[in-house]
């Protein structure tokens, strides 16, 4: 069985699935994807996301504000209240993105610190987005003792040096469909090196559909393609990738 450790079910174009989210979840189940972690990107949209997914026992939730959604400072009390929902197993998506929004750096840093604080208070791991902000991301994880709760550097595209430092702090590295792209040779080298007990797989659906589905909307069922490519890269069987990544997910979230 596989687990999609990062998807955005509330962002799918449901008209492609007969306007029924159940068809997406069933397609994942048919592909032997047993759990889906649906990721929050804004606090204002979290209640609707939770409502949309509440009927599915195999859909788990995160709660947080994406670093590119920094219209204003994060209300830490609202984050704490929403994230205390029993359906929420992770805090985020949070982190730093200086590639697309260097102008909001200070807001992003403030938001990231607040997410780490709430994660530690609620004892829930972090879902971290990081792009072109390696030093600040690692420095903040250390200074705020984020390793106390751990978490995932999702959709990883950075260097092996960053991955190794994050792993040493207790974090997991998650690979998405990007690892299947023709121009991702450097990332594939990183994927060879992450320890067996520290990697996860994800889709980031509806974005970043893996080969052979490039050009289509991504969906959780396609996480199997990520696993197939990772198996080839790491010289392991698909069954081994499935078992290791599932065990890693369940260990991180104490499931």
CATH architectural name: Alpha-Beta Barrel
Could you say how many structural domains there are in total?
Answer: 1
Beta content: 15-25%
Spans of at least 5 consecutive residues with low confidence: none
Supply the number of helical segments. 9
Number of strands: 8
Q: What percent of the residues sit in helical stretches (DSSP H or I)?
A: 25-40%
Provide the spatial order of strands within the biggest beta sheet: 1-2-3-4-5-6-7-8
Give the overall form: globular
At the fourth CATH level, what is the homologous superfamily?
A: Metal-dependent hydrolases
The CATH topology corresponds to: TIM Barrel
* Gap between N and C termini: 15 Å
Mean pLDDT: 97
Task: Please explain how this structure is put together.
- The chain has a single domain (2-252), classed as Metal-dependent hydrolases (TIM Barrel, Alpha-Beta Barrel), CATH 3.20.20.
- The chain is 39% helix and 17% strand.
- The chain has 9 helices and 8 strands.
- Strand 6 (151-153), helix 6 and strand 7 (171-175) form a beta-alpha-beta unit.
- The model has no long low-confidence stretch (mean pLDDT 97).
């Amino acid at each position: 069985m596989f687990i999609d450790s990062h998807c955005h079910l509330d962002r799918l174009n449901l008209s492609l699935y007969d306007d029924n989210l159940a068809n997406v979840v069933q397609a994942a189940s048919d592909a032997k994807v047993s759990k889906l972690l649906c990721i929050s990107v804004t606090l204002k949209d979290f209640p609707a996301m939770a409502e949309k997914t509440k009927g599915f026992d195999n859909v788990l939730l995160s709660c947080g504000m994406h670093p590119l959604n920094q219209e204003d400072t994060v209300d830490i009390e609202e984050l704490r209240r929403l994230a205390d929902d029993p359906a929420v197993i992770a805090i985020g998506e949070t982190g730093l993105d200086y590639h697309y929004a260097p102008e909001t750096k200070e807001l992003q840093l403030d938001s990231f610190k607040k997410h780490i604080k709430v994660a530690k208070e609620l004892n829930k791991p972090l879902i971290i987005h990081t792009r072109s902000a390696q030093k600040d991301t690692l420095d903040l994880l250390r200074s705020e003792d984020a390793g106390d709760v751990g978490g995932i550097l999702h959709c990883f595209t950075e260097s092996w040096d960053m991955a190794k430092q994050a792993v040493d702090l207790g974090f997991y590295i998650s690979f998405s469909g990007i690892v299947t792209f023709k121009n991702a040779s450097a990332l594939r080298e990183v994927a060879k090196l992450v320890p067996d007990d520290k990697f996860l797989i994800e889709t980031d659906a509806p974005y970043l559909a893996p080969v052979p589905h490039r050009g289509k909307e991504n969906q959780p069922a396609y996480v199997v393609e990520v696993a197939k490519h990772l198996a080839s890269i790491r010289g392991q069987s698909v069954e081994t990738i499935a078992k290791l990544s599932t065990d890693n997910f369940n260990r991180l979230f104490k499931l």
